[in-house]
Amino acid sequence: MSESDKQHRKIRSYVLREGRLTAGQQRAFDTLWPQFGIDFKPGQTLDFPAIFGNANPVILEIGFGNGASLAEMAEANPDQSYLGVEVHSPGVGRLLLDIEERGLSNLRVLRHDAVELLESGIAPATLAGVYLFFPDPWHKKKHHKRRILQPAMVRLLASAIRPGGIFHAATDWEHYAEQMLEVLSECRELFENTAGPGNYSPRPEYRPITKFEQRGARLGHGVWDLIFRRR
Length: 231
Description:
This protein is α/β, with parallel strands linked by helices. 37% of the residues lie in helices and 19% in strands. The protein is built from nine helices and eight strands. The protein has helices at 3-8, 23-36, 48-52, 68-76, 89-102, 114-120, 151-160, 174-186, 211-218, and strands at 37-38, 58-62, 81-85, 107-110, 127-133, 161-171, 191-193, 224-230. The longest helix is centred in the first third of the chain and has 14 residues, at 23-36. The radius of gyration is 17 Å and the shape is globular. It starts with a helix and ends with a strand.
């Protein structure tokens, strides 16, 4: 790759790790993906009423990991539709199995880059909310530019979320929480902090506590929630 190519290469907010699928996860892709997966192509705008078969509010979760929390939220809120986007195949396969096990009809899955999805796949002001729970903190200073929540991302979120809709982020890295709070607060013409300027929010009941979070709490690790409302 030439130096010019390196300079113009698009920075990704993730590292694509294919991982090895279990037999169950492979079955999920073979049999469940046609029903619950969305084969998204850049430039295609998603039709939520057609996808979900109703006009219920749609919540997008970016980077759902193994999907346990997303499935729990979808089961607890059947009058809302949920869309999860993740790049890690085993996590997608695990969520598909969870959808089957719980008998969910209000959850769909994409395996794609969330930035590309927001750039071209979401019609303006069609999301009731976007969740970003425990994104990769890219803790080394030289990698901070890879953190997903940057000013350009906030503008994409503002376009996709309808007025009054919510952007909710959570992290267990205090420095990342501070950076997210700063970035969101600087976009005050787009979002307002529901906890008041400069404040973090208490964890709302709708966000499940993950096993990872429970383990961190036992070790004395903090968690910071940021909930901002689209103006």
